[in-house]
C-alpha cells in the first residue's frame, strides 16, 4: 500500500509533464489517440498557431547551430520572404477557406457510408494513413499539373533550405488540394480529420533543415530531412520526387522515390530561380506566366493542355527547352538592404505580430475590421518586400502605409476603426511613436529622392533601385 502511495505523486507529475509537451510531440506525430481525438470539430485545438512560438524557438536554435557548424546561415531577406508567405497563407485560410471545413462536414453528415465511433483506435490510424495518402496525390498533382504548380511553386521558390523555408506556403494551394481529401468524408468524422490534417502539416516543419543527417532505418518508412532535401532540389534527378508528407512508403510504392546523393550537393529552389523578395509577387508570378503563355497559344485544346499538363510541357512544333544544368558553386540570388535598415524592418515586422494573431484567432470585433486588418498586414509585408527589392516606389508606398495607420490611430473612434485598431494594448503608445518617427524618416528620404533623382539605395556601394 505504501508503495502505491509513493508512486501516485510520481505518476501525477509524469502525466503533467507529458501533457505539457503536446505541442513539441504533435510536431513529430508522437500523440496518443486519447489526447488527440475529439467528439466535436469545435473542440479540436488550433495546434498550428499554438506551435508558432515553438517554431520560432527552433529556427533560432537552428541559426545558432548552423553558425557553429559552419553551415550556410539563414539570410534575413530569404527568411522574411518565407515568414511573410506563411502569414499571408494563414490569414487566407481565415478569410476564404472556411468552405472546406463546411463542405467536409456536409458530405460527412449526408453521404457517409458508415458510422464509426470518433474514439475508435482503428479510425485514428485509418485517418493517419488516409490523409497521408491523399496528401501524396495532392502534392504530386501540384507538381505535375501546370495550373496547380502555379500555386505550389511558392513553397519551392527559396534557394535556401532551413526551417523558415517550411513557412513559405502558397495562398492558392488550399483552393485546389482539398479535393483529394473528400473521399475521407465518407467515413472519417470531421473532428478526427481536422486534428490529423494539422498534425500532418506540422510534421513537415522539422524536415526542412540541413542539420539533420540520415536517420538510419527510419528512412525506409518516414519522410525525413534527407528525403525532403531531394524534393526541394532543382537538379534533374531531384525533380518530381519524394512527395510524401509523413510517410515515404507512398513514393516507394508508386515509383517516385529518390535517395539523397552521398555528396549532399543538391541545389535548392526553382529550375528558373526567382530574383525578387516581394511575397505577393512570388505568389502570383507563375500564374501571370502560364496565363500569358496560354493566351498567346493558338487553339483551345493547346491552351487547355498548357494549363493541365506538366510544367515542362511544350506544344507540338515548338522546341523543347532542356532543364538548365546547375552550375557549381551555386550562388543564390541576393539583394540585401543597407545594414541600418535591418532594425527598421525587424521592429515594424514585430509590430505586425499582435494584429496577425488577432486575425488568425478571429478576435477582431467586426467583419470589416477583420478585412481591414488583414489588408494592413498584407500591405505592410508587400512594402517590406519592395524595400528588399530596391524598388524606386518603395519609399512612397511605405510613407503611405505609415500615414494611413497614424490617421486611423488618431481619428475619432467608430464601431470598427479608431485608436488601438492597429496597436492593441499594451503596444499602443510604442507603436504610435515608432510610426511617427518612421513617417518623418521616410518623408525626408522621399524628398531627397525627388530632388536628387535617386533613392537612398543608390548611394555608392548600394545596389540601385529599379
Brief summary:
This protein has 19 helices and no strands.
Describe the structure.
The structure is a single chain. The N and C termini lie far apart (80 Å). Helix content is 56%, strand content 0%. With 466 residues, it is mainly alpha-helical. The chain has 19 helices and no strands.
Core attributes:
single chain, 466 residues, mainly alpha, 19 helices
Number of helices: 19
Overall pLDDT score: 88
Strand content: under 5%
How many strands, what sense, and barrel or not for the largest sheet? none
Shape: globular
Low-confidence stretches: 460-466
Task: Report the order of strands and helices.
Answer: HHHHHHHHHHHHHHHHHHH
Report the structural category.
mainly alpha
Number of strands: 0
Rg estimate, integer Å:
24 Å
Cα(first) to Cα(last) distance is 80 Å
Q: Which range best describes the helical content: under 10%, 10-25%, 25-40%, 40-55%, 55-70% or over 70%?
A: 55-70%
